[in-house]
Design a protein that fits this description.
There is one protein chain. The protein has 230 residues and is mainly α. It contains ten helices and two strands. A two-stranded antiparallel sheet has the order 1-2. α5 packs antiparallel against α6.
Length: 230
């Protein structure tokens, strides 16, 4: 299971990087699962899981009877909902996430199924991988949060969340750029916060899941606002 999860992450990253770099343009039909399996040297089930993840991220869509297509619109007006031009904008983005993701974590704890829980756990494990807490990529962090959103079973909220993916990723990447400046205890705390969100959702404790998610996102927002944690 762990090996398959690692392979899924690798395939996901390969395809995602090509989409975001423009090598795979919008509306491009992706090769078949069989062809991708041969290309990456993995099983079709691994390819299928990677494509499922990319669909959750809004980068790929499946058209019945036609296959999988790139769904990344670089000129998508959703990217201009509010650009991140400075730390003040990033603080406002985090403030929005505190309330929005807190409520979605609440619903995720109430509505999640076993597959949702596996997806959240897989993303959490990816963040822990490498023998050091919080060494996961910004993408693996986003996958954790998008998996929680998917577990809330609210398609409207899920679409709204995907529409600000760019803005969220700015914050996640900034956080990782600051890693060398953070004490070990802080990094341990960050991975512990993700774990607490997962545990609360696993235990179907909705109020605890809401509180854990809000505390997790608010920690970063508070650090940016006060300038005393980074």
């Amino acid at each position: 299971m762990a090996r398959n999860a690692r392979l899924r992450e690798q395939v996901c990253r390969e395809i995602r990087d090509r989409i975001l770099a423009g090598e795979f343009p919008d509306n491009l039909k992706l090769p078949t699962e069989s062809a991708l399996s041969d290309r990456f040297g993995v099983s079709r089930s691994v390819v299928r899981a990677a494509l499922d993840q990319l669909r959750r991220e809004g980068l790929v869509e499946t058209r019945r009877g036609s296959g999988s297509f790139v769904n990344h619109k670089t000129s998508d007006p959703s990217d201009s909902i509010q650009t991140i031009a400075g730390l003040g904008d990033l603080v406002h983005c985090q403030e929005t996430r505190v309330f929005f993701e807190g409520e979605m974590a609440f619903l995720a704890a109430e509505r999640r199924d076993d597959d949702d829980l596996k997806a959240i756990k897989s993303a959490l494990d990816a963040m822990k991988r490498g023998g050091h807490p919080f060494l996961g990529t910004a993408e693996s962090d986003y996958e954790f949060h998008i998996a929680v959103m998917a577990a809330a079973k609210n398609d409207f909220a899920f679409s709204l969340y995907k529409s600000i993916r760019h803005q969220i990723m700015v914050g996640l990447r900034l956080g990782r750029s600051l890693l060398p400046l953070l004490p070990e205890a802080t990094m341990q705390n960050v991975i512990a916060e993700h774990t607490e969100v997962y545990n609360a959702i696993r235990d179907r404790d909705a109020p605890r899941a809401r509180a854990a998610m809000r505390a997790h996102i608010d920690f970063f927002r508070g650090g940016l606002k006060k300038g005393d944690r980074w």
